[in-house]
Amino acid sequence: MQLRQVSDFLIVSISVLLIQLVTLSGASANAQTPQQRPYAGIVNGDTIWLDDFSREVGRKAELYETVGSMNPSDIMEQTWNEIVMAVLLRQRAQTAGLTPTPAEIDSVLLSATPDFVMRGVVDDKGRFDKPLLLAMALNPDSLVEARGQKLTAQQRTEQAGQLKASMSELRSKVGHQLMLKRLKDKVTDTLVVDTTALRKRYQETSTTALVDLLYFPCPNITQEPTRPELEAYFESHSPNYTTTTEMRRMAMLTWPLVAAPVDSNLFLANIKAWIELLNKAKSAHETDSVWNEVASTIASGSTTLHPDSATHKQFYEACQGKKKGTAVGPFILSSGVHVLLVDSVFSEKGKKGKRIAIRVAITDIPPSKETVDSTLREVEVAVDMYDRGTVLNELATKFHKQIVFTPFFNSDTKIYDSYRLVDVAFQAHVRAATEPVDASALGIVFGVVTDSIPPGPLPLDAAVASVKADMQRELACKSIESVVKGYAGIVAVLEDGRMLVPEPPKGATILRDVTITMDGLIGESIVDPLAASVICGSATSGLMNAFRGDVGWYVVNVKSVSKARDEEFPMFMKANGQGLVDEQRSAYWEVWKSTLIKQSVIEDRRWMYFRY
Q1: What's the CA gap between 573 and 435, in Å, rounded?
Q2: Closest C-alpha to 2, from 611, 537, 519
Q3: Is pLDDT of 31 > 60?
Q4: 26, 64, 256, 296: which sits with the fewest CB atoms below 10 Å from its CB?
């Protein structure tokens, strides 16, 4: 089983970090010799090395930290997909003879410098410095020599090496862009432009209506329909529920990775050792270093404790009277093990107590390697019993587990925060056991593929979530139908063409002189393709009967409708044709890339090192 190999990489234990702090050892326990260099995957014979993949994961994680948060499993999946695609495109470009030469790359770099390069090579006024770029590319040793006169010979050599490495990476990025453009042009040159789609687009964007309207959004209803109601609704709407890709479902037994009592004792001893190290620190810099070494690997943050807060009472009493830099804890709560570090103490006028600013680190107690290996051995026994003919129900009874059924899923989704579960499900045959997976949300999962649905109509069990949502929306919209039609009965159109609403209805929005396009945009805030199509399809101006669209109900006074005219199609194409053709080329390129992946042989070993 591969999972046994995974365990060393998956359990990032606080105890390991504490040992490193105590021994001041920077060596990695999992260091690899050059002969043992691990790889993350193989794509049509080309290797994706684990260290390269991990580096890219780290870069992307840093990027998302600056712009927001992203689930670690999604970061790893996105990075993997991008690297695999980059390898496939490079392979195709090489086969087609489209790989740029070093001279061609330098020509683009120095003569038609890309924006991302220009933004990074600037003078002291922030302007692109072309002479500097020329020197960096063509004479890096001389550049370092000229700018580093106070450096030692060794330092100049090191800086020259770093500069050459940076320029090599820069050339690689420019070369990839050039190669990608050549390959995309070659592929999309085979596209036959769909003129019917272009004319349809013209009809959608050039047919508009000017209206006044009342918009009634359907309320949010969460009432759960019964099974008979679901079946009845599905029977009458079954053509609406289809899939374009195969879908599967699994039955699972799960072994949560929970710390044993001995793990808890050892972990808490390590936590106490960390607190002791913090309290022995001789400077604020040392305190920060010891704190960050561990806190950066778990949930951490800062807050302020107030003397009159009931929720802070336990923490406040523990921190009261402590000086800055004092670590307090551990506190074992349902939310995890808490360690506090006093940052500052503030007095408040008119109050006896003081506010205490603290840093907080929170972690669960992880299972030890021994506990993980013991769990894995039990899973191995279950897998072996299933392979020998024991049915899943008997296994569930023997190991005191409940059988859990996944929802239906396709190959490019994730379930229970795991992409690996989906991958192994599509690698196994129906009724066959999947490879056991270590999924962070569940623990060790042993699954059996129970169902496979080919592209086409969906059975109710596979469509139940969509059916339920549609039924709830149907109920929500029907619940206000009588109200809408009641208001429609008192709305009138004045002689000057304006819509008169005697009493502004609660929950509705009144929009006047709104332009609607047939592609679905109503004003600036409502997107409803069905309603837009109905309104723009009106043959006459005036008040329309109340009707329901995709997102709500409408009472509409049509002031004017401007239909697309065939004789203006050439003018439209002259103004917009290139952009629309480029859209078709981009869509064609994406389909081509998807086909390329399906035709390739990809060995994915990243699961050996990452848990998700």
Answers
A1: 54
A2: 611
A3: no
A4: 26
Structure tokens at 352: 């006896």
Identify the pLDDT of residue 67.
66
Closest CA to 606 of 245, 29, 75: 75
Interacting residues of 444 by C-beta distance below 8 A, sequence separation 6+: 3, 254, 255, 257, 375, 376, 379, 436, 437, 438
3-state secondary structure 384-422: HHHHCCCCHHHHHHHCCCCCEECCCECCCCCECCECHHH
Tens of pLDDT along 492-510?
Answer: 888 888 888 887 778 888 8
Nearest Cα to 565, choosing from 209, 211, 210, 207? 207
pLDDT tens per residue, range 146-180: 776 677 888 888 888 888 888 888 888 899 999 99
Q: What is the CA radius of gyration of the chain?
A: 32
Q: In angstroms, what CA-CA distances link 326 with 1, 279, 284?
A: 46, 6, 11
Could you tell me whether strands 208-217 and 509-517 are parallel, antiparallel, or unpaired per DSSP bridges?
antiparallel
- 165: exposed, middle or buried (Cβ count in 10 Å: 0-12, 13-18, 19+): exposed
Give the integer Cα–Cα distance in Å for 461 and 463.
6
Count Cβ neighbours within 10 Å for each residue of 569-604 and write b for 16 or more, e otherwise.
Answer: beebbeeeeeebbeebbeebbeebeeeeeeeeeeeb
Which of 558, 612, 609, 596 minimizes the C-alpha distance to 93? 596
Backbone angles phi, psi at 62, to 5 degrees: -65, -40
Which of 137-141, 273-277, 344-348 is the least confident region? Answer: 344-348
pLDDT tens figures, 274-331: 888 888 888 888 888 888 888 877 778 888 888 877 877 888 888 888 888 888 888 8
Q: The sheet that has 437-439: what strands, in order across it?
A: 404-405, 247-255, 443-453, 437-439
Residue 75: name the closest of 83, 86, 67, 64 by CA: 64
* pLDDT at residue 34 greater than cutoff 70: no
CA pair distance 433, 446, nearest whole angstrom: 7
Question: pLDDT band at residue 13, thresholds of 50, 70 and 90?
Answer: very low
Residues 436 and 89: their CA atoms lie apart, in Å, by 33
Can you give the pTM of this predicted structure? 0.69
> From the DSSP assignment, how many helices (H) and strands (E) are in the chain?
21, 22
Q: Which residue would you say has higher pLDDT here, 199 or 70?
A: 199
Provide the pairing of β-strand 437-439 with 404-405.
unpaired
For the chain, how far is it from start to end, CA to CA, in angstroms?
A: 17
**3-state secondary structure (DSSP) of residue 327:** strand
Q: Measure the CA–CA gap between 50 and 56, rounded to whole angstroms.
A: 10
Peptide bond into 217 cis (omega under 30): no
- 3-class secondary structure per residue, 7-60: HHHHCCCHHHHHHHHHHCCCCCCCCCCHHHCCEEEEECCEEEEHHHHHHHHHHH
DSSP letter for each residue of 72-137: HHHHHHHHHHHHHHHHHHHHHHHHTT-PPPHHHHHHHHHHS--HHHHTTSB-TTS-B-HHHHHHHH
